[in-house]
Description:
135 residues; mainly alpha; 4 helices; 0% strand
Amino acid sequence: MNANNLVxxxxxxxxxxxxxxxxxxxxxxxxxxxxxxAVGTVLAAANFVLLAKLAVTMxxxxxxxxxxxxxxxxxxxxxxxxxxxxxxxxxxxxGGAFMAGVSAVVAAITLVGLFYGTxxxxxxxxKQGDSSSAD
Length: 135
């Protein structure tokens, strides 16, 4: 499985877990909590996608935008902290429900890692010392 497939699976599982979280928050705490949970999931999933792209760029020795990606990673961090701070401090979202939505992405990363993390992409070259045939 390549990095793009992994990111796509995490986003899809995040959407499912986030929808479940938002539904439960809405059922127990009302529509504002449901919306807050959904907003948390969307922001966390977007953050994950951007982080994955920046990490791939930064780890590629031959990529011309390595330094720019590193700077952008710092800017992204400051922007994310600012956005979340404004949302929570101004009571635009409910903090606990928002964090439940963010946690949906963390749960999705764990689930995808557990169930899909060890599968290999058939187009990847075999690793040295890796035997695919039984002796």
